[in-house]
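ugh ok fine here u go
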Amino acid sequence: MRIMLAVSTMTAGGAERVAATLVNHWSAIGHKVALITVASSDLDFYPLDQRVTRIALDLSRSTRNWRDFVIVNFKRVRKLRSAIHDFKPEVILSFLDTMNVRMLLASIGMGVPVIVEEHIDPTQNSVGTIVRILRFLLYKRARAVVVLTPGIARWARRFVRAEAIHVIPNPISQQFCTSGKLEAERDGHRVIAIGRLEAQKGFDMLLRAFARTAEEHPGWILMIIGDGSERKQLQALAAALQIGDRVVWERAVKEPEKELRRSDLFVLSSRFEGFPMVLLEAMACGLPVVSFDCPSGPREIIHDGEDGLLVPPNEIDALAGAMSRLMSRKDERGRLGERAAWIVERFSLAKVADMWSAVFEQALR
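structure:
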């Protein structure tokens, strides 16, 4: 099968990791695969199989107003259409709202089935008026609309026929599945969090929660891995909370599993998500986890009290309490971490790839 996967960029992020995982898998089992982005390939963060055809339009730039938005996106759609013509895919898979709209426009009249995926909770994520209207109009054209959770499927049913909607979770990349044991590699008392340093990820709330545990747990540190526009503000907040010397900041890394396996507790403090990859990855590494029970994602992953802890969304005191509980109880951390590692079976690449294959077969029929 000839498959084209489209995503805006291949910088560090959950959707981008899933894109790389899927195209590498499909190439390895014999499909002809192209990965196309609006952004330049110079920004690529994740390694790709050498058999994947990499197409980069290098048309990523911000727009100043709605007129500029229309002109720039017209160019992008035209280039996408040309790439479809040249590669001749049998099926197109597009990730993320804005890219989905572009690809549905680009493929008009070309006879290629397009499958779109929403990688984040659209009820929480603002996409702007133009994209929201186009999504409402164009998603009806998609051969299938793939979402990450049943809750997001309910949102999609408001304007997409029910038989076109499929729920497919994110798969766990093989690099996180090599070991569920932490003891041999553990450094000491370390909380870890990973993600883009943006408001969505709630690192400001994590810092406040950690500060509330700091006096009771003087030997613990917090490591935050990621890049983003809020780095300086978050560092200033850590200093204001008098925990600046106990917070370690690291840039995005290609092998986060190494830092996960050296840590003792993972925390997800997001205000909203889709199906958080980093939570899957931490659990696959055998880490005990604490997460806000935000509207989409964590509840589908964590069995509260069995393989992790869920706390009410945006409640900093509750987050601090759950963190402090696990920081105090090594035995409970061990029990939760051992159960967490079973996530590898629930969301294996083989299982998720089979689900995608079924959607492709239906789309081609």
